[in-house]
Design goal:
Layout (H helix, E strand, L loop, with lengths): L2 E5 L4 H12 L3 E6 L14 E4 L5 H10 L3 E4 L6 H6 L1 H22 L3 E7 L22 H20 L3 E6 L1 E3 L11 H10 L4 E4 L5 E2 L1 E3 H10 L7 E5 L5 E2 H12 L5 E4 L14 H7 L7 H13 L4
The structure holds nicotinamide-adenine-dinucleotide.
Organism: Bacillus mesophilum
Protein name: NAD-dependent epimerase/dehydratase family protein
Family: Belongs to the NAD(P)-dependent epimerase/dehydratase family.
Length: about 300
């Protein structure tokens, strides 16, 4: 039986990845300290290690179990928190990642698949960002993820550790909470549920590359066997404005929604869309979910408490 570790497996994306791995007959281990994840998200059949990724115990369990693959998703993923507490952000996202890399190096046989982010690019303001574009993060979160990516690259170069780095667009779907990165969909859905108006910062014309959680899970699974040594975008390659998201939700909600336009926030990125052509080729993967169906799935999940 193949063995996989999912750090952050009690979180939004990690728990749904763990679920799919179990369906594929993997022995699935989850390392999570439940700082933003939930015990109820951990799928039946997964072996749960309630540990911090920075701890010696988290490293030891990987060294002992010698998994075939480690999906490293555990992170401090709150951009605002990274600004107010850069030290904490760096400890989890950089030092924690190094601890997991050391574990894989010692285990000697694990592929390391890392969840990174479009936040590494900062405010490039390009309609179509390619992987060759410069990384110029404008938050400590983007910076710590980029630093982690570089540690991973160097572990690959020095120790030949098999790795794939996946830079996600804005992930959305069931189980997303407003706390994490790319939380605008979750923020809107929570406000609708609580019968509150939606607040759009700026004029609502800012665009994001929204990718459905199920498509992100599939990209991770494809990276088990493909994309060694590569950094890849996991995205749709299509920009969607925040206003469009609000409009689709309006349609789904069957009731009037008030929209309040407020000032744009300092540090907010105007446009972010990631070219995915190389990923489609390398991972033999395609994003399948259209925005309307994906938003419907997320809307139904939150309103029917389907977690
Ligand atoms: P999430 O907050 O739902 O999941 C993160 C999980 O990591 C949580 O279960 C949390 O309890 C756990 N965790 C945090 N710190 C930990 C620590 N020190 N030790 C052990 N566990 C710890 O976030 P998510 O949206 O599922 O994000 C997963 C990954 O994807 C993160 O690495 C994030 O940076 C990346 N990412 C997410 C998005 C997005 O739009 N959601 C976009 C780009 C990248």
């Amino acid at each position: 039986m193949k063995k996989a570790f999912v750090t952050g497996g009690a979180g939004f994306i990690g728990s749904q990845l763990a679920e799919e791995l179990i369906k594929l007959d993997y022995e699935v281990h989850i390392i999570d300290n439940l700082s933003s994840g939930y015990r109820k998200f951990i799928p039946d059949g997964a072996l749960f290690h309630h540990l911090d990724i920075c701890s010696a115990d988290a490293k030891d369990v990987i060294v002992r179990e010698k998994p075939d693959v480690v999906f490293h998703l555990a992170a401090q993923a709150d951009v605002t928190r990274s600004i107010s507490n850069p030290q904490y952000d760096a400890e989890i996202n950089i030092i924690g990642t190094i601890n997991m890399l050391e574990a894989c190096r010692e285990a000697g046989r694990s592929k390391f698949i890392f969840s990174s982010t479009s936040a590494v690019y900062g405010n490039l303001n390009k309609s179509n960002i390619s992987i060759e574009d410069p990384a110029l993060p404008i938050s400590y979160y983007g910076l710590s993820k980029f630093a982690a990516e570089n540690y991973i690259r160097i572990y690959h170069e020095i120790y030949n550790l098999p790795i794939t780095i996946l830079r996600y667009g804005n992930v959305y779907g069931p189980r997303q909470t407003p706390k994490g990165e790319g939380g605008v969909v979750a923020v809107f859905l929570n406000r609708l549920k609580n019968k509150q108006p939606l607040t759009l910062h700026g004029d609502g014309r800012q665009t994001r590359d929204f990718i459905y959680v199920g498509d992100v899970v599939k990209a991770n699974l494809a990276a088990i066997y493909n994309g060694n040594g590569q950094t890849l975008h996991v995205s749709t390659g299509k920009p969607t404005s925040i206003q469009e998201v609000a409009d689709i939700l309006k349609e789904l909600h069957y009731a009037d929604i008030d929209i309040i336009y407020s000032n744009s926030r300092p540090g907010d990125i105007e446009h972010s869309c990631l070219n995915n052509e190389h990923t489609i080729h390398v991972l033999e993967w395609l994003p399948e979910m259209d925005m309307k169906s994906g938003l419907k799935a997320a809307y139904n999940a939150i309103n029917n408490d389907l977690f």
